[in-house]
Amino acid sequence: MEEVKVYSRASSIPKNPYIGFCPGCMHSTTFKVIAEVLDELGIVDKTIECNGVGCSGLGLGYVYLDNVFCAHGRACAVATGIKRTNPDNIVFTYQGDGDGGSIGIAETIYAANRGENITMILINNGTYGMTGGQMAPTTLVGQKATTAPWGRNPEEHGYPVHIAELLDSLTAPAYIARVAMNSVQNVRKAKACIKKAFQYQMEGKGFSYVEVMSNCPTNWGMSPLETLEYMEEHTLKEFKLGEIRAK
Ligand SMILES: Cc1ncc(C[n+]2csc(CCOP(=O)(O)OP(=O)(O)O)c2C)c(N)n1
Ligand code: SF4
Predict the structure, then answer these.
(1) Is the pLDDT of residue 117 over 90?
(2) CATH at 50
(3) Ligand 2 centroid from CA 129, angstroms
(4) Does residue 118 line the site of ligand 1, with CB under 6 A?
(5) Would residue 6 count as lying in a domain?
(6) What's the pTM?
(7) Burial status of residue 77 (CB atoms within 10 A of its CB: 0-12, 13-18, 19 or more)
(8) Is the CB of 130 under 6 A from ligand 1?
Protein backbone atom coordinates (compact mmCIF):
# COMPACT_ATOMS: atom_id res chain seq x y z
CA MET A 1 0.00 0.00 0.00
CA GLU A 2 1.25 3.50 -0.83
CA GLU A 3 2.57 5.30 2.22
CA VAL A 4 0.86 8.64 2.84
CA LYS A 5 2.49 11.37 4.87
CA VAL A 6 -0.21 12.68 7.15
CA TYR A 7 1.50 15.07 9.50
CA SER A 8 4.97 16.14 10.55
CA ARG A 9 6.67 18.97 12.39
CA ALA A 10 7.48 21.93 10.14
CA SER A 11 11.15 22.00 9.18
CA SER A 12 11.93 25.33 10.86
CA ILE A 13 10.49 24.28 14.23
CA PRO A 14 13.17 22.58 16.33
CA LYS A 15 12.44 19.48 18.39
CA ASN A 16 13.19 21.31 21.61
CA PRO A 17 12.50 25.03 21.23
CA TYR A 18 14.61 26.86 23.80
CA ILE A 19 11.86 29.32 24.51
CA GLY A 20 8.24 28.62 25.33
CA PHE A 21 5.09 30.66 25.28
CA CYS A 22 2.67 30.40 28.22
CA PRO A 23 0.40 27.33 27.98
CA GLY A 24 -2.54 27.96 25.68
CA CYS A 25 -1.03 31.08 24.09
CA MET A 26 -1.89 31.30 20.41
CA HIS A 27 1.44 32.91 19.53
CA SER A 28 2.70 29.32 19.30
CA THR A 29 -0.12 28.22 16.98
CA THR A 30 0.53 31.24 14.78
CA PHE A 31 4.23 30.41 14.50
CA LYS A 32 3.38 26.79 13.75
CA VAL A 33 1.09 27.89 10.92
CA ILE A 34 3.71 30.28 9.51
CA ALA A 35 6.34 27.52 9.63
CA GLU A 36 4.00 25.14 7.77
CA VAL A 37 3.27 27.78 5.13
CA LEU A 38 6.98 28.44 4.55
CA ASP A 39 7.50 24.70 4.01
CA GLU A 40 4.55 24.43 1.63
CA LEU A 41 5.84 27.38 -0.42
CA GLY A 42 9.41 26.03 -0.33
CA ILE A 43 10.86 29.32 0.91
CA VAL A 44 12.28 28.48 4.36
CA ASP A 45 15.89 28.98 3.27
CA LYS A 46 15.32 32.41 1.80
CA THR A 47 12.95 33.82 4.40
CA ILE A 48 14.09 36.50 6.85
CA GLU A 49 11.99 37.26 9.89
CA CYS A 50 11.96 40.68 11.52
CA ASN A 51 10.75 40.18 15.08
CA GLY A 52 9.13 42.84 17.18
CA VAL A 53 9.80 43.25 20.87
CA GLY A 54 7.44 41.52 23.26
CA CYS A 55 6.19 37.97 23.44
CA SER A 56 6.18 38.14 19.64
CA GLY A 57 9.97 38.31 19.91
CA LEU A 58 10.02 34.98 21.70
CA GLY A 59 9.48 33.45 18.27
CA LEU A 60 13.25 33.74 17.81
CA GLY A 61 13.61 30.62 19.91
CA TYR A 62 10.53 28.86 18.59
CA VAL A 63 11.10 28.94 14.85
CA TYR A 64 14.61 28.77 13.45
CA LEU A 65 14.83 31.21 10.55
CA ASP A 66 17.28 33.93 9.60
CA ASN A 67 16.06 36.81 11.67
CA VAL A 68 16.61 40.25 13.09
CA PHE A 69 15.37 41.29 16.50
CA CYS A 70 14.18 44.83 15.78
CA ALA A 71 13.88 47.73 18.18
CA HIS A 72 10.36 48.02 19.56
CA GLY A 73 7.99 49.16 16.79
CA ARG A 74 10.61 49.42 14.06
CA ALA A 75 10.23 46.04 12.35
CA CYS A 76 8.58 47.40 9.19
CA ALA A 77 11.41 49.92 8.76
CA VAL A 78 14.02 47.19 9.26
CA ALA A 79 12.16 44.88 6.88
CA THR A 80 12.03 47.67 4.29
CA GLY A 81 15.82 48.00 4.33
CA ILE A 82 16.40 44.26 4.18
CA LYS A 83 13.94 43.68 1.35
CA ARG A 84 15.17 46.59 -0.75
CA THR A 85 18.76 45.38 -0.50
CA ASN A 86 17.87 41.67 -0.82
CA PRO A 87 14.90 41.60 -3.17
CA ASP A 88 15.21 37.86 -3.74
CA ASN A 89 14.61 37.08 -0.09
CA ILE A 90 11.19 36.77 1.47
CA VAL A 91 10.93 39.21 4.38
CA PHE A 92 8.22 39.30 7.01
CA THR A 93 7.64 41.07 10.29
CA TYR A 94 6.06 39.40 13.29
CA GLN A 95 4.84 41.99 15.76
CA GLY A 96 2.49 42.48 18.67
CA ASP A 97 -0.31 45.05 18.61
CA GLY A 98 1.62 47.23 21.06
CA ASP A 99 4.67 46.99 18.84
CA GLY A 100 3.15 47.44 15.38
CA GLY A 101 -0.04 49.28 16.34
CA SER A 102 1.17 51.74 18.95
CA ILE A 103 4.85 52.57 19.32
CA GLY A 104 5.50 51.51 15.74
CA ILE A 105 2.29 52.73 14.12
CA ALA A 106 4.22 55.31 12.04
CA GLU A 107 6.58 52.65 10.67
CA THR A 108 3.62 50.38 9.95
CA ILE A 109 1.56 53.01 8.13
CA TYR A 110 4.43 54.36 6.06
CA ALA A 111 5.74 50.94 4.99
CA ALA A 112 2.18 50.09 3.93
CA ASN A 113 1.76 53.46 2.24
CA ARG A 114 4.94 52.94 0.23
CA GLY A 115 3.66 49.52 -0.79
CA GLU A 116 6.86 47.84 0.38
CA ASN A 117 6.99 44.28 -0.90
CA ILE A 118 7.04 42.75 2.59
CA THR A 119 4.59 40.76 4.69
CA MET A 120 3.48 42.00 8.09
CA ILE A 121 1.96 39.62 10.63
CA LEU A 122 0.46 41.50 13.57
CA ILE A 123 -0.75 39.66 16.66
CA ASN A 124 -3.78 41.36 18.16
CA ASN A 125 -4.13 40.00 21.70
CA GLY A 126 -5.52 43.20 23.18
CA THR A 127 -2.66 43.63 25.62
CA TYR A 128 1.02 44.33 26.14
CA GLY A 129 1.70 40.70 27.00
CA MET A 130 5.37 40.60 27.87
CA THR A 131 5.43 43.63 30.14
CA GLY A 132 2.49 42.58 32.30
CA GLY A 133 -0.84 43.34 30.67
CA GLN A 134 -0.91 47.08 30.10
CA MET A 135 -3.64 48.51 27.87
CA ALA A 136 -2.90 48.14 24.17
CA PRO A 137 -4.36 50.15 21.29
CA THR A 138 -6.63 47.16 20.68
CA THR A 139 -7.94 46.65 24.23
CA LEU A 140 -11.73 46.48 24.13
CA VAL A 141 -13.97 49.06 25.76
CA GLY A 142 -14.54 47.77 29.29
CA GLN A 143 -11.72 45.22 29.07
CA LYS A 144 -9.45 45.40 32.10
CA ALA A 145 -5.72 46.02 31.90
CA THR A 146 -3.11 46.74 34.57
CA THR A 147 -3.14 50.37 33.40
CA ALA A 148 -6.96 50.42 33.20
CA PRO A 149 -8.01 48.43 36.28
CA TRP A 150 -11.67 49.44 35.84
CA GLY A 151 -11.62 48.62 32.15
CA ARG A 152 -10.99 50.74 29.06
CA ASN A 153 -13.00 53.91 29.29
CA PRO A 154 -13.37 55.70 25.91
CA GLU A 155 -13.62 59.13 27.56
CA GLU A 156 -10.24 58.63 29.14
CA HIS A 157 -8.49 56.17 26.82
CA GLY A 158 -10.17 56.44 23.45
CA TYR A 159 -11.54 53.53 21.47
CA PRO A 160 -9.88 50.33 20.19
CA VAL A 161 -7.77 50.95 17.09
CA HIS A 162 -8.65 48.84 14.03
CA ILE A 163 -5.27 48.57 12.42
CA ALA A 164 -6.37 46.53 9.39
CA GLU A 165 -9.04 49.10 8.55
CA LEU A 166 -6.58 51.96 9.06
CA LEU A 167 -4.29 50.36 6.48
CA ASP A 168 -7.28 49.82 4.19
CA SER A 169 -7.62 53.62 3.97
CA LEU A 170 -4.30 53.69 2.06
CA THR A 171 -3.97 53.17 -1.68
CA ALA A 172 -0.84 51.05 -1.87
CA PRO A 173 -1.34 47.90 0.25
CA ALA A 174 -1.98 44.81 -1.85
CA TYR A 175 -3.40 42.38 0.68
CA ILE A 176 -5.11 42.98 4.03
CA ALA A 177 -6.83 40.31 6.12
CA ARG A 178 -7.90 39.69 9.69
CA VAL A 179 -7.94 36.11 10.95
CA ALA A 180 -8.34 34.40 14.33
CA MET A 181 -6.73 31.56 16.24
CA ASN A 182 -9.69 30.68 18.45
CA SER A 183 -10.98 27.52 16.73
CA VAL A 184 -9.76 24.80 14.42
CA GLN A 185 -11.87 26.22 11.60
CA ASN A 186 -10.45 29.70 12.07
CA VAL A 187 -6.88 28.41 12.32
CA ARG A 188 -7.36 26.74 8.92
CA LYS A 189 -8.69 29.98 7.43
CA ALA A 190 -5.82 31.88 9.04
CA LYS A 191 -3.33 29.56 7.42
CA ALA A 192 -4.87 30.14 4.00
CA CYS A 193 -4.65 33.93 4.43
CA ILE A 194 -1.08 33.82 5.74
CA LYS A 195 -0.11 31.66 2.77
CA LYS A 196 -1.75 34.13 0.41
CA ALA A 197 0.08 37.04 2.02
CA PHE A 198 3.43 35.34 1.37
CA GLN A 199 2.38 34.48 -2.18
CA TYR A 200 1.60 38.15 -2.80
CA GLN A 201 5.15 38.99 -1.79
CA MET A 202 6.58 36.20 -3.96
CA GLU A 203 4.66 37.63 -6.91
CA GLY A 204 6.02 41.12 -6.17
CA LYS A 205 2.58 42.60 -5.55
CA GLY A 206 3.59 44.78 -2.60
CA PHE A 207 2.62 45.16 1.03
CA SER A 208 0.66 42.26 2.54
CA TYR A 209 -0.78 42.41 6.04
CA VAL A 210 -2.43 39.75 8.20
CA GLU A 211 -3.81 40.70 11.59
CA VAL A 212 -4.10 37.62 13.79
CA MET A 213 -6.66 37.74 16.59
CA SER A 214 -5.06 35.96 19.52
CA ASN A 215 -5.23 35.56 23.28
CA CYS A 216 -3.15 36.05 26.40
CA PRO A 217 -4.32 33.66 29.11
CA THR A 218 -1.70 34.95 31.54
CA ASN A 219 -2.62 38.62 31.43
CA TRP A 220 -6.32 38.17 30.71
CA GLY A 221 -6.38 36.11 33.92
CA MET A 222 -8.32 33.24 32.31
CA SER A 223 -7.79 29.62 31.44
CA PRO A 224 -6.83 29.06 27.80
CA LEU A 225 -10.33 27.72 27.04
CA GLU A 226 -11.97 30.72 28.68
CA THR A 227 -9.87 33.05 26.50
CA LEU A 228 -11.17 31.34 23.36
CA GLU A 229 -14.75 31.79 24.56
CA TYR A 230 -14.01 35.43 25.42
CA MET A 231 -12.70 35.97 21.91
CA GLU A 232 -15.86 34.51 20.39
CA GLU A 233 -18.19 36.48 22.66
CA HIS A 234 -16.38 39.82 22.77
CA THR A 235 -13.21 40.35 20.73
CA LEU A 236 -14.48 39.04 17.40
CA LYS A 237 -17.59 41.21 17.66
CA GLU A 238 -15.34 44.31 17.67
CA PHE A 239 -12.73 43.04 15.19
CA LYS A 240 -14.43 41.52 12.15
CA LEU A 241 -12.69 38.65 10.40
CA GLY A 242 -12.10 38.21 6.70
CA GLU A 243 -10.14 39.38 3.71
CA ILE A 244 -10.44 43.15 3.62
CA ARG A 245 -8.42 43.69 0.45
CA ALA A 246 -6.97 41.29 -2.11
CA LYS A 247 -5.73 43.22 -5.17
C1 LIG B 1 11.39 51.55 22.98
C2 LIG B 1 10.84 50.55 23.98
N3 LIG B 1 9.79 50.90 24.75
C4 LIG B 1 9.26 50.00 25.61
C5 LIG B 1 9.80 48.76 25.72
C6 LIG B 1 9.21 47.78 26.72
N7 LIG B 1 8.42 46.74 26.12
C8 LIG B 1 8.93 45.53 25.85
S9 LIG B 1 7.81 44.42 25.31
C10 LIG B 1 6.58 45.59 25.43
C11 LIG B 1 5.14 45.25 25.15
C12 LIG B 1 4.92 44.41 23.95
O13 LIG B 1 3.56 44.27 23.73
P14 LIG B 1 3.00 43.80 22.35
O15 LIG B 1 3.71 44.47 21.24
O16 LIG B 1 1.53 43.95 22.38
O17 LIG B 1 3.43 42.26 22.25
P18 LIG B 1 3.04 40.98 23.13
O19 LIG B 1 4.03 40.93 24.25
O20 LIG B 1 1.62 41.13 23.60
O21 LIG B 1 3.21 39.86 22.16
C22 LIG B 1 7.07 46.81 25.89
C23 LIG B 1 6.27 48.04 26.13
C24 LIG B 1 10.91 48.42 24.91
N25 LIG B 1 11.47 47.21 24.94
N26 LIG B 1 11.41 49.35 24.04
S1 SF4 C 1 2.31 36.64 28.40
FE2 SF4 C 1 0.48 36.37 27.12
S3 SF4 C 1 1.12 36.80 24.99
FE4 SF4 C 1 2.98 36.42 26.25
S5 SF4 C 1 3.42 34.20 25.99
FE6 SF4 C 1 2.19 34.46 27.85
S7 SF4 C 1 0.05 34.18 27.20
FE8 SF4 C 1 1.29 34.57 25.35
Answers:
(1) yes
(2) 3.40.50.970
(3) 5
(4) no
(5) no
(6) 0.97
(7) buried
(8) yes
